[in-house]
Amino acid sequence: CSRTSPAREGLDDETGEPLIRREDDEPAKVRHRLDDYDHLTRPLLSHFADLGILHTFDGENYPELVRQNRRSDAIYTDLKPLVKARLDRLP
């Protein structure tokens, strides 16, 4: 679902509870948290690439799914065989 507003104004769609906006939900604070996350995790990309175990998935191998706004399904379609192969090698 791509709806950005609740079905009933001011209420959570699942629980019916009143929606609130916390101080840490402000756009500038969210951007700051995402910047911190990027700063802390970006070194891991090169670390795992150097070890030869970095795999990236963007769903572009399945453009029809991406066009249908089902990118996670497209990524899973690529990811599943890799995970299965790794699991099959476990004792």
Write a brief structural summary.
The chain is an all-alpha fold and 91 residues long.
Give average pLDDT, whole number: 93
Query: What assembly state would you assign to the polypeptide chains in this entry?
Result: single chain
Q: What would the principal axes of the Cα set say about the shape?
A: extended
Unreliable stretches = none
Task: Report the structural category.
Answer: mainly alpha
Major sheet characteristics: none
Give the H and E element order.
Answer: HHH
Alpha carbon gyration radius: 19 Å
Strand portion, in percent?
A: under 5%
Number of strands: 0
The residue fraction in helices comes out at 40-55%
What is the terminal-to-terminal distance? Answer: 40 Å
Number of helices: 3
Task: Write structural notes for this entry.
The protein is built from three helices and no strands. With 91 residues, it is mainly alpha-helical. The protein has helices at residues 27-50, 63-67, 71-88. It starts with 26 loop residues before the first helix and ends with a helix.
